[in-house]
Write a structure and sequence with these properties.
The chain is an alpha/beta fold and 478 residues long. The chain has three domains: 173 residues, 3-Layer(bba) Sandwich (FAD/NAD(P)-binding domain); 114 residues, 3-Layer(bba) Sandwich (FAD/NAD(P)-binding domain); 107 residues, FAD/NAD-linked reductase, C-terminal dimerisation domain (Enolase-like, domain 1, 2-Layer Sandwich), CATH 3.30.390. Helix content is 30%, strand content 24%. The strands form five sheets. Strands 1, 2, 3, 4, 5, 6 and 16 form a seven-stranded mixed β-sheet that branches. The N and C termini lie far apart (74 Å). One of its GO terms (molecular function) is flavin adenine dinucleotide binding. Its EC number is 1.16.1.1.
């Protein structure tokens, strides 16, 4: 059964955090808006990524913090209560029910159509509903693709028969496997290795390259590697997976490495990257190649589409595969759509009201390992590659008075990269327990292009770890 065609000012395909933020902004601009979702409203972040992964990680990090403190160590000698941690994780995901998120859409007067949405020509979207019907939608002003990404798997013979874990399985598993092999060296790989090791699994981390977290300062990956090994994770570099097979439907997984080595596990997680979720959303009907990343300008308007009605925000445009950056893009895109719909000027200058400028120079990220890694802006290598004249300043975080409050064995490091020509920060990296809470101050400094001389007047409270800012500036001055 097909519903009567419906017309809105804006159609949003994908009701994850990005689509929700974009819809919120277009609705606030007075534009009628509908979102189309084939799974749960709230998307990957709420049910299979950010929220459940951090629910799994927080007990592990809290336990590590406690074990560093004299007077508490004897009280926390036992292992984590894995069933209790998993139960709390389930609460964080609302037990994979989206009633609350649907209620929020209703509260901001955004309509919801459940089903698989596909573009069907300019400003047209056809939605196949769960019941098998079709809902046809027309947009007066814009269609926004906010479909995100899916976990990438290697094109390896027989991999489907192995039923490997992806990030979704790793964050929603109902019990800890006795042995878990993790393939990859990025954020998902190290976070899930941290979580499941703490929850009782024997974890082997198979990394193709020579280090972890290759998109941040090298010392960050080195410190995380050291900590993972101390926790009991078997970290192997130069480990190229050549084959994978499972003994029966639920038996042992055997992983063959180049060179002949083999690893056995009960489950194997492939955390080797993400692929755009654009293979079946009708891109070919508007002259675009299906299955690829969508190229956009700084207002998230898709390039190469006549009429400028198509937008893409979040992971799907490959600018910054992070929930907070996607939400930021959604806000910027929603504001730009609203301005264009009303015939108002679009403020597309750098740091303007309608552009996602921060995607280029001020992207923050926290890796929730022990120690935590927090970084924003350019690394020293990236700044050098960009031709910037810089000074790199490092400081031992353990020497900051506030670090001693975390325990006697605090290990951490801070780095800031200074643009000598403009006297502003290009990037900042912190590694150490609790450093995620330092990151926003660094993000403000980088995004705001605060002169280093002005930062001297931002006085950090004593005794907090934030006093590292003073120490970095003192080191910079020499």
């Amino acid at each position: 059964m097909n519903d009567a065609p419906r017309t809105y000012d804006v159609i949003v395909i994908g009701a994850g955090p990005v689509g929700e933020n974009l819809a919120d902004r277009t609705r606030a601009a007075g534009l009628s808006t509908v979102v189309v979702e084939s799974e749960l409203v709230g998307g990957e972040c709420s049910y299979w990524a950010c929220m459940p992964s951090k629910a799994l990680l927080r007990p592990a990090l809290a336990l590590a913090d406690a074990r560093r403190l004299p007077g508490i160590q004897r009280a926390v000698r036992g292992p984590l209560d894995t069933p209790a941690v998993l139960a709390r994780r389930d609460d964080f995901t609302s037990h994979w029910k989206d009633d609350g998120q649907v209620g929020w859409l209703q509260s901001v007067d955004v309509d919801l159509v459940r089903g698989h949405g596909r573009l069907d020509g300019p400003r047209q979207v056809a939605v196949t509903t769960p019941e098998g019907g079709t809902v046809r939608l027309t947009a007066r002003h814009a269609v926004a693709v906010c479909t995100g990404t899916t976990a990438a798997l290697p094109p390896m013979p027989g991999i489907d028969d192995v039923h490997p874990w992806t990030s979704r399985d790793a964050t929603s598993a109902k019990q800890a496997p006795r042995r878990l092999a993790v393939v990859g060296g990025g954020v998902v790989a190290v976070e899930m290795a941290t979580a499941w090791q703490a929850l009782g699994s024997q974890v082997t981390l198979l990394v193709r390259g020579s280090g972890l977290l290759d998109r941040v300062e090298p010392f960050a990956g080195e410190m995380v590697t050291e900590a993972l090994r101390e926790a009991g994770v078997d970290v192997r570099f130069g480990a190229n997976v050549a084959s994978v097979e499972r003994d029966g439907a639920h038996g042992e997984v055997r992983i063959g490495l180049e060179g002949g080595a083999r690893v056995s596990a009960d489950e194997v997680l492939f955390a080797i990257g993400r692929a755009p979720h654009t293979g079946d959303i009708g891109l070919e009907t508007v002259g675009l190649k299906p299955g690829g990343w969508l190229r956009v300008d700084d207002t998230c308007q898709v390039t190469g589409v006549e009429g400028g009605w198509l937008y893409a925000a979040g992971d799907v445009n490959h600018r910054a595969l992070l929930t907070h950056q996607g939400k930021y893009q959604g806000r910027m895109a929603g504001a730009a759509i609203g301005a264009r719909a009303k015939g108002e000027p679009v403020d597309d200058a750098p740091w303007g009201a309608h552009v996602a400028t921060a995607d280029h120079s001020a992207v923050p990220q926290v890796v929730f390992t022990d120690p935590e890694v927090a970084a924003v802006g350019l690394s020293a290598a990236e700044a050098e590659q960009a031709g910037r004249r810089t000074k790199v300043v490092d400081y031992d975080l353990a020497q900051v008075a506030g670090a001693s409050l975390y325990g006697d064995d605090y290990r951490g490091r801070a780095r800031m990269v200074v643009d000598l020509d403009r006297n502003v920060l290009l990037g900042v990296t912190f590694v150490g327990p609790g450093v995620g809470e330092l990151l926003h101050s660094a993000t403000v400094a980088v995004a705001g292009e605060v002169p280093v001389d002005r930062l001297w007047h931002a006085v950090p409270a004593y005794p907090t770890v934030s006093e590292v800012w003073l120490r970095l500036l003192e080191t910079y001055r020499g």
